[in-house]
Amino acid sequence: MLKKTAKKALKVFANYINMRQLRPARMAGKINIDGIIHFRTNNGIVELGDSISINSSHYANPLKGSRCSIIVDSGARLKIGNRVGISNSNIYTKTSITIEDDVNIGANCSIFDTDFHSLDYNDRCNNGDSMVKTAPIKIKKGAFIGASSIILKGVTIGERSIIGAGSVVTKNIPDDEIWAGNPAKHIGRCT
User: Residue range 56-73: average pLDDT?
Assistant: First the structure.
């Protein structure tokens, strides 16, 4: 019992240290983290709503994904609304990612608003990736992102829409639609 209590205290302390590094950050309320989260900002802006739940360990989800990693680059903005659930996923923003209220993000998802590297060979090799493309991402209220999906730069996912597990989302998804596949395609309407 004492060993279990000590482990829990260590996780709480590690998350406290990680969350203190979120400057400047605005937190509206309670954030529940199961496991230890990797959260880093480089002078980016972070806004966190109330009742956010983040699974971030091999034991926090039956799919046993890796820890949750959230990185907000210099000058970037991450906004996570109220009652959002994120499970063992990776979020990286160079410009802006907005996750509205009541969104669920399944295990092992990746949400990136950048290509990370230039698509031009000469720029990658000779100019230090100076032409990397970025574009904001918005995941609207009530959307559900299935496990192991990838959301790429410039995408807006509509209200209450569902992304099937393992999908790669490369373009905007309207409200109340179901999309799946690589690349994700429309497969139905939400009922």
Answer: 75
